[in-house]
């Protein structure tokens, strides 16, 4: 009973916060920081790539890798299979590099541009407070260049490396060389190739053997300069018997022009290692008419290379005009585990085609997929998932559950499950449901004194509970708030 | 407390209530009986503001206020409570979260302080114990996986928590075995006080052995065709509705 009480108390205080915070319906983080940016001219060619590479003082091997990716990209075509539509992107009309003007080296937050710090405050990320209170180390990415890194000292003691990928290229070239592109090679897909050629910055994490990372590692992304594509590159390596939980959260300012975002995230889990990767994605979704908004074409993949390793993806996707994203697991090591927990919300004219791939290679590999899609307005929400059981994956198991919830009658929910099994000892289960937010549920809550708006939030949060339970506490609260804001006014 | 004047209502364009007149005072228990399809549940839904029911004529005053102008949540906050015939499941939402939100909405409306988590917890435990409910159900999802009896008990728990002035029990006895029925009735009797009123909608007399009404009304084809005291219910139990219906039809001729 005590356990129940504790759990309930927590839940209650969360719920209070959430209900209090549901206020504004417009995208509340839509502001632009005035800050001098150093921006590359529009267009993409080998010179631009050399420029990016030299701006970042990269070694020759990195420049070559970028160029190889670029040459490969030139031969590729944009994928047409996702269930989304958008005007053709002119890749020569995009600027591929933008850096806030920056003092040469920053030793403390005092040296950070005050405008920049204000931006973080507006986003609710007071770095200083976070340093003291929450125990979260933040590697903040502002546009393309990392400007502040905290908690490095504590992490250093444990031998944990948490820095920008640019810094990692300089400081830990052997690790980067070994693992960059090892999970998502530049030949993988159109956007991964583009990212490999032009990636600006991102995070690098290395957890040494036997180390359990004592805090959640977190990066906040923010697109700032107009029409600047963002090409983040994240690489996380968990060595044998290590553990890390990584949080990624994003906000972006209101823009009329579509903004392209093509990130690549690679995770590597070695023997007995575990990586938990949580995302709350809140890119600008476009206005109520569907104008503007971020195009989010992301390649996220984790390799469970070692025996008994585990990778969990948890994502809450509320933003972007278009989301194209399939965080995946390659279950190579025997007994390795892959998990995917997802909430994808679309409203107005948003389009999402998201899901996962679970590739079972090793023996007794297990995977779980829980996907919750919520569509409102005139939006379109598709789940696309692949479960592949290879020839040698003896005893592999998968459980997939895809639930869709519709709000109103102008939106769409679609499920595209692909299952390929080459081993008859495998067990694959797939469950799917589609439901409407029930009038009878709303009336029931109304009859207990709860307004329709709050009733819808409550029903939707309940629908997503299994996924929210997987998020770290403070992230779960934020996710619930975002959900409420995203769906405001969609019923009643 | 509640005055219903010539209330007429449609469901999907069909007239179900054809002029209901009823006055209920604080401290009274009224029972509405009648054969299936007579409009009993419609009355409960109309009074609580279910959008699927369209009021075409008449007036309802709740403590002097025009009830029909209020949205469902305002009616609830004013103190009207419906124990549903078929309680609704809300997956992923715990009973505690749900009830605490509801309680605070009602408190805010009344200008009262919100309940603290600690107060709430001891309150809900106390009420659950009163109904012989397992405390574990406090953290279970609203009505999900509950048996018929548990659902009905959960409705009564909500009533005890929200402390309404006017309680509608819609076929609360349906699907209950005799033990569960006694527990539910006991909950109502514990709550009964001079400031509250009950309208018990039921098909069978059985429930009225445990929740003893001051007045019994027979609803037939959208009208109250007979009103009396608790003895009327016993008479109905014995003779069925036919004799009343025949009487009514004779009068109409």
Q: Strand tally of chain B, please?
A: 12
The greatest interface between two protein chains, and residues involved on each side, is: A-B, 34 and 43 residues
Give the termini separation of chain B: 35 Å
User: Please, what is the average pLDDT of chain B?
Assistant: 92
Average predicted local confidence, pLDDT of chain A: 79
Rg of chain B, alpha carbons: 18 Å
Which range does the strand content of chain A fall in?
25-35%
Inertia-based shape of chain B: globular
Index terms:
heterodimer, A: 492 residues, alpha/beta, eleven-stranded mixed beta sheet, ten-stranded mixed beta sheet, globular, B: 253 residues, six-stranded mixed beta sheet, four-stranded antiparallel beta sheet, 8 helices
SSE arrangement:
The complex is a heterodimer of chains A (492) and B (253).
Chain A: H1 2-21, E1 37-39, H2 46-55, H3 60-74, E2 98-100, H4 114-122, H5 127-134, E3 137-142, E4 145-149, H6 152-157, E5 161-164, H7 165-171, H8 173-179, H9 190-198, E6 203-207, E7 217-222, E8 233-238, E9 243-251, E10 259-261, E11 264-269, E12 274-282, E13 294-304, E14 310-317, E15 322-325, E16 328-331, E17 337-346, E18 351-360, E19 366-375, E20 380-389, E21 397-406, E22 412-421, E23 427-436, H10 439-446, H11 452-463, H12 465-468, H13 473-486
Helix pairs in contact in A: 1-13, 2-3, 3-9, 7-8, 10-11
Chain B: E1 2-11, E2 14-24, E3 29-33, H1 40-48, E4 53-62, E5 65-66, H2 72-78, E6 80-83, E7 90-94, H3 95-109, H4 117-130, E8 141-142, H5 148-162, E9 166-170, H6 178-191, E10 197-201, E11 215-220, E12 223-228, H7 230-239, H8 242-252
Parallel strand pairs in B: 3-10, 3-11, 6-9, 9-10
Antiparallel strand pairs in B: 1-2, 1-4, 4-5, 7-8, 11-12
Helix pairs in contact in B: 5-6
